[in-house]
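TL;DR need structure tokens for one chain.
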Amino acid sequence: MVNNTALGHFGRLEIESTLGSGTSVRLLLPRPEKELAPTEIRAWPEILNSDLRILVVDDDEFVLNAHAAILRHLGLEPQTSSRALEALFDLDAEKFAIVITDLRMPEISSIEFAQRVRAMCPTTRIFPLTAFEGGLEDAP
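>> reply
TL;DR here they are.
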């Protein structure tokens, strides 16, 4: 995941490991071409609307809590669900601007989950995430 993040930002990940001595990990990212002036840097609360309704769905409680913690750090209050079918019921009851979902879930395929979300809430943005390289073999 870290390597993919580095590559996505035109950087690289370097790992050196010596048995008995330890491991060194360096995440190298390019500097921006133009340094931003302090007046150009905006705080998260100025960028994000704290009333933004976000639903996070992941069957792995650790990952679910990690995503929620990051969003809370940004001043948001996401609703979470570890069960996809339960989350669909919540979607029916409430409007969410964003749904962040695991790509691989046991109850329902992420493709079917996304299709149902889109059918119920056509304007909701859906962000499928996975820690598995390559995503799903049988889906676009």
